[in-house]
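Entry 14. Ran structure prediction on the chain below.
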Amino acid sequence: MLGALTDGNAMTAGEVASATGLPTATVSTTLSRLAKSGEVLKAERGYRLPAQSQTDGSAAPNADTD
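Output, structure tokens:
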């Protein structure tokens, strides 16, 4: 489900459901829960991933490299 949001554009629950093949009700409930936990952000129209997501496994900008 989060993979559908990786292009940076906000998507509605219906759009995510169409992209993933999951039921709209399931997507809507899950996105709402993810928004409450901060894993996705509620956009003006739909949901999107936070701008500075660390899901790619890269080190944080201030990580100690010693």
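Residues 53-64 have pLDDT under 50 and may be disordered. Will compare against last week's run tomorrow.
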